[in-house]
Specification:
The protein is 69% helix and 0% strand. The protein has helices at residues 2-22, 38-42, 49-67, 72-91, 105-108, 110-133, 139-164.
């Protein structure tokens, strides 16, 4: 348990610093890499919802402070943390049979993890860009931003997961 907390704390700091640097990147004028949400996706499913919501809110708030986005990331991270358990239960109904409660490719398998991660990334991207636009005046651009940022984030999070996950656990 302590090892997991230390790993999550280190991952928290690294991802926040990485996101602060990546927030200025705008690929093709529409796609922003949103790598800091990887920690929220990777939090153990056995942790209480209050802990998960608090970590997500603090992480979003820190990213907001550094990127001058007043509360948008904090709101969307909290929303993401709230949707995490129902989405996990949607794709992995056998939660009690997991040896390692941390969702990753090693524990869930590639297909299940890709569905879990893609759904949550799409929820986060849609919420952050709809809050940013706050209007449907230029909805094609908003939809392009949601799609492109989601796709870029999914690719980056899969790469990040392959770097962070080093040991092979028994899959479900």
């Amino acid at each position: 348990m302590t090892k997991t907390i230390i790993e999550m704390a280190i991952l928290f700091v690294v991802l926040v610093l990485l996101q602060v640097m990546c927030y200025k990147i705008l690929l093709f004028g529409v796609a922003i890499p949103l790598v800091f949400i990887y920690l929220i996706l990777r939090l153990p499913v056995t942790w209480h919802m209050n802990i998960t919501l608090t970590i997500a809110f603090v992480m979003g708030l820190i990213v907001d402070v550094f990127n001058n986005t007043p509360g948008m990331n904090a709101l969307c991270c909290t929303l993401l943390a709230a949707f995490r358990e129902p989405v996990f239960a949607l794709f992995v109904p056998r939660e009690n049979e997991m040896n390692n409660p941390v969702p990753c490719v090693d524990t869930l398998g590639f297909g299940v993890y890709l569905k879990y991660m893609s759904t949550l990334v799409l929820i986060f991207s849609a919420s952050i860009f709809l809050i940013q636009a706050f209007t449907m005046h230029n909805w094609p651009l908003t939809l392009m931003r949601i799609g492109a940022s989601s796709l870029l984030t999914i690719v980056l999070l899969l790469a990040l997961d392959s770097l962070v996950s080093t040991r092979r656990e028994k899959r479900l």
